[in-house]
Write a structure and sequence with these properties.
Length: 328
């Protein structure tokens, strides 16, 4: 326990200098050998007025990106759960990388430790919305959330943590059963975000190949059954708005119909165009028009302002630095 506290509260990965180990230096050495807890190396760093993007490298050479967003008095860290992603959504840069490998729980937590102890930034919120599909790496993600929320260490409350999935139905169900069965009762306050982007199976299947495995009907059932801790809690529905793809009045109507019976908040995210030139960014008017359509139909929704796009740190833009360093 002293080791856990010193690692997560002070960023000290050695235990020989802890007073609790002064009587047993052999034990201190053994712990040092058996547990590798190196904080990931920062290979590159980009910054604008309200965001920092880090390129982190692990000892095996694998690189990932992590973003810190500053909003008023809060700072939010957006962590990666995989190096790359196997899900291949057509609008997402990370999807274009393919999957290198899953991150360990230590590597997920390590992103936060780099920010905390190398840059001295105290983080108040955490979103698992960086590179990767969290439920393709379920066990490590859950273990990382348990470590990060542990009151004896980093102590970010579970209610300030959001996990975002592209619609991995078994993952949503497994998380729900962990919460219900009491395997991980503390996770009941965890915020769940589901990236929907279209409520039409054909359209969604083109944008998100995962929809061909778990189509909208199955996804809706899993979301409906997901336990919410309090009556006023909502499932977040991420909707990346792409002109000419999913922004028509009919798209809005289908979305509202789909979400009937689900306590939800739609986050409208203006599309950040990637490097493949396939999609455009919507104008402010197009975003507001879609927002008004949803509101008039009684759907609770918000516009998520684009942040970090000048340093390629916005949603769906993670992977550019990795690609650049890999190829050169
Ligand atoms: N794999 C998970 C979490 C990482 S992606 C998921 O898909 O939910 C984080 C969010 O960024 C998702 O909502 C995703 O759909 C969104 N996103 C991806 N590419 C985007 C782009 N080009 N513009 C805006 N948002 C994008
Ligand atoms: Fe993977 Fe999410 Fe990007 Fe889709 S949007 S490719 S699931 S990271």
């Amino acid at each position: 326990m002293p080791f856990f506290r010193s690692l997560y509260r002070r960023g000290t990965s050695g235990c020989s200098d802890l007073k609790e180990f002064s009587l047993n230096t052999a034990l201190a050495r053994k712990i040092q050998q058996d547990f590798c807890c190196r904080i990931p190396f920062i290979k590159d760093i980009r910054q604008d007025e309200s965001n920092i993007k880090l390129l982190l490298q692990f000892p095996d050479g694998v690189m990932i990106e992590t973003v810190v967003l500053f909003m008023n008095r809060y700072s939010t860290i957006c962590v990666s759960t995989q190096a790359g992603c196997a899900r291949g959504c057509t609008f997402c840069e990370t999807g274009r990388l393919g999957l290198m490998r899953n991150l360990t729980a230590g590597e997920i937590v390590g992103q936060l430790l780099s920010v905390r102890f190398y840059l001295g930034i105290k983080v108040s919120n955490l979103v698992l919305m960086g590179m990767g599909e969290p439920f393709d790496n379920f066990e490590n993600v859950i273990m990382a959330i348990e470590i990060i929320s542990d009151q004896r260490g980093i102590n970010i409350p579970v209610s300030s943590i959001t996990v975002s999935t592209a619609g991995h139905v078994p993952g949503i169900r497994k998380l729900a059963s962990h919460i219900r069965s009491g395997i991980s009762p503390d996770l009941k306050r965890l915020c769940l975000a589901v990236s929907l982007h279209s409520a039409d199976n054909d359209n969604r299947g083109v944008m998100m190949p995962i929809n061909r495995i778990w189509p909208l009907e199955e996804l809706k059932q899993a979301i409906k059954e997901f336990p919410l801790a309090r009556q006023r809690d909502r499932i977040f529905i991420e909707y990346t708005l792409i002109p000419g793809v999913n922004d028509s009045p009919e798209d809005a109507r289908q979305l509202v119909t789909y979400l009937k019976g689900i306590q939800s908040c739609v986050n409208i995210i203006p599309c950040n165009p990637g490097n493949n030139g396939l999609y455009r960014r919507p104008s402010r008017e197009q975003v507001e028009k879609f927002f008004n359509l949803l509101q008039h139909m009684g759907q609770y929704c918000r516009i998520r302002d684009t942040k970090g796009d000048t340093i390629q740190a916005a949603c769906g833009q993670l992977g550019g630095l990795v690609l650049k360093k890999r190829s050169g």
